[in-house]
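Open question from group meeting: does this chain pack into something compact, or does most of it stay loose? Before anyone orders reagents, we agreed to write out a predicted structure and look at it together. Recording both the input and the output here so the notebook holds the full record.
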Amino acid sequence: MSHVLVLLVAFCVGTCLGFAPDNRIVGGKKVKIEEHPYQLTFQQSGRHLCGASIISRKWAVTAGHCVGGRASTYRVGAGSRHRYNGTFHNVSEIVRHPEYDFAAIDYDIALIKIDDEFSYGSAVRPIQLPERDLQGGEVVNITGWGAVQQGGASTNDLMATSVPTVDRLVCSKAYKSVRPITDRMICAGQLKVGGKDSCQGDSGGPLSANNTLYGIVSWGYGCAQPKFPGVYSNVAYLRPWITSVTGV
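Structure tokens returned:
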């Protein structure tokens, strides 16, 4: 979730207060890229920064807090479970949502356009965009190369886990002393016991079900903590904007 802290200020928010964008999969297992062929590694200056998801031959989607530099400094990697293997594509354009709010981590979405095109195959495929909102209790998948425990190092191998979605009202109560849970956010995690979550390094990656992208890893309180589910950008709410930019 905003586990990748974009600025020093964000780093302090995340480490001093415990809630900020997050980047890894906790409580997961290694998976093949063919199981999640839309998954990308989003890199800056050759280093893994965040996750991203393919939505067309030219476009991918990530979290707004993952971007900030010149497009020419970024690349995406596709088609491999290892974050430094696969096929890399240079980025030609980045479009962050015009209403992105750094402090509230709201409208936390950005679109990535590549120089060439993704070549589809068993390990490289687009993910569908949703036509409905998720309801509380639906089981979803989260994937990424982030840390596998809070405060730990990120992993080179793609990890995945499954968690239930959490009703927005319940999530709002959990985070009432932190920040509002808006309509642009959805929550997922094992509310009572924790143990499974996205974390630092997973930011920008997919929350999915049935090859449909419902969420984008955004932020949370720590990683896999009981009573604090992960918070994800709500792709169903943000889809009209995605379509207006990409045509998808």
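Observations to bring back to the group:
The longest strand covers residues 87-96.
The chain has two domains: 37-126+240-246, 127-237.
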